[in-house]
Amino acid sequence: MKDQTINVENISVEIIVDDYAESPREWCNATKFVMFHKRLNLPNELGIRNEDYNSWNEMKDALDKQYKWVYPVFMHDHSGVAFSINSFDCKFDSGQVGFIVSDEGNAHEAYINVTEELKEFAHYMNGDVYGVRVFEDTEMIDFHYGYYGCDHEDSGLKDELDSCLSRITTDEIKQQILNQLS
């Protein structure tokens, strides 16, 4: 998504790419990533050396002895990257890049944590992190950054914008702005 500007009467809203977004791997996470790639700097949060193993199976066996939940991580690299715990159908632009491990929760909770953290990391790797700036006339009156993903409702950006607009304008203007949000 590219930057978006919405103007309604004296209120302007800018949705902009957050060029200084923090990697979600810097946060307190329920999982640890162990990934390897020749070109990309992927997280290896356990410091494992892939050359110490002869195969993914051998590495998985070692991780299974240390962690309750061990999932393979596959990456599809074509006009951006996608990560999954399931193999992609494309043999040319995808393959296994490592594992994601966790000791937290039951099987369902671990699965949710793994898929959510992979999704956030993919948004970060693809530059799909956004900020919102709100202007009244020409004065910036509010701004927030760090919304991961193009779905502004899912990322929380739309709720934050709704809250900000509720403080400074009428419901009618607020609704016009929110309806234009892509």
Describe this protein's structure:
With 182 residues, this protein is an alpha+beta fold. The chain folds into two domains: 4-21 and 129-180; 31-125, no CATH class. 30% of the residues lie in helices and 31% in strands. It contains five helices and eight strands, in the order E-E-E-H-E-E-E-H-E-E-H-H-H. It has helices spanning 56-64, 107-125, 152-155, 157-168, 171-180, and strands at 4-8, 11-17, 32-35, 69-77, 81-84, 94-102, 129-136, 139-148. Strands 1-2-7-8 form a four-stranded antiparallel sheet. The chain has a four-stranded antiparallel sheet with strand order 3-6-4-5. The longest helix has 19 residues, at 107-125. It is elongated, with a radius of gyration of 20 Å. The N and C termini lie close together (9 Å). The relative contact order is 0.19. The mean pLDDT is 94.
The whole-angstrom Rg is: 20 Å
Order of helices and strands: EEEHEEEHEEHHH
Number of helices: 5
Bin the helical content.
25-40%
Shape: elongated
For the termini, the CA-CA separation is: 9 Å
- How confident is the prediction overall: mean pLDDT? 94
Largest sheet: 4 strands, antiparallel
- Largest sheet, order of strands side by side? 1-2-7-8
Please indicate the percent range of residues in DSSP E strands (runs of 2 or more): 25-35%
Number of strands: 8
Unreliable stretches, pLDDT < 50, 5 or more residues? none
Number of domains: 2
Which structural class fits the helix and strand makeup?
A: alpha+beta
